[in-house]
Amino acid sequence: MKILLIHSSGKTLMRDWRGEDIQTSWGEVLGSEIGKVKESNKAVPITTSKGEHFLAIKPLLRDIIQKGERGARPLYEYDAGIAGALMSLQNGMVVLEAGTGSACATLMFAQMVHPGKVISFEKDERFYELAKRKLADAVVTNVELHHENLFMAALEENSFDAVFLDLLEEVEAVKKTVSALKPGRFMCVYCPVEAKVDGVVEAMKEKRLVDIEVVDLNLKRHVITGEKSGPCFPGFFVCGRRFKSV
Ligand SMILES: C[S@@+](CC[C@H](N)C(=O)[O-])C[C@H]1O[C@@H](n2cnc3c(N)ncnc32)[C@H](O)[C@@H]1O
Questions:
Q1: Are residues 44 and 83 in the same domain?
Q2: 213 Cα–ligand 1 center, Å
Q3: What residues are paired with 189 via a beta bridge?
Q4: Cα-to-centroid distance, 100 and ligand 1 (Å)
Q5: Cα distance between residue 123 and residue 99, in whole Å
């Protein structure tokens, strides 16, 4: 299992743990102490061999996304949260996603729609394998991961409560997936650069999506000294609602 050690300084370490003691620069953490996290499913205070203090917990989704393995450029949890709100995700929904990439958005959507599910397509074997590991780390089970090119997939008409697209061929993907979206539901497309937005909006209009809006993800993080750190991943969400059959 994955374990998160939060040091009293606020620094965190995420490790794979199989029962052994863990060496850190703050001293040794006994495996028997970490075992209490597994048994109780609660945060456990731990003192190291050097008298330093940690809180040991099972990592939360945010930890898995920010500290876990990454391949393709991920969407961070705050952006995926915005996408989830734009698509109005709620319990029980079934979401179509492509591509899975580092499975960061997948993890967030899976939580939002539980006990519904996310059906996610990833064409690249490396990312597909990485995403499988990520889902296992987060102990998320309501994701159907397909190692398949979206454009080769057979998608049932009117079968998804939401569609989320984060891949290079956004316009073609809108055209491919629109009929799989239930009428009245939302599709959301991530565009990493502004130059791509117009093409996606046009494709949505052509496919008779309505209520189209563009959200600029120009979020900034502020460090607590008051200085601005750089922007987070920039980009845009283009979101539209299916009006009728096409
Ligand atoms: C930028 S990443 C997605 C990141 C993801 N949203 C996340 O939060 O981790 C784009 C992914 O789409 C995959 N991809 C591109 N075209 C695809 C297609 N036609 N079908 C399935 N996956 C595709 C790529 O292999 C890549 O892993």
A1: no
A2: 22
A3: 165, 238
A4: 5
A5: 7
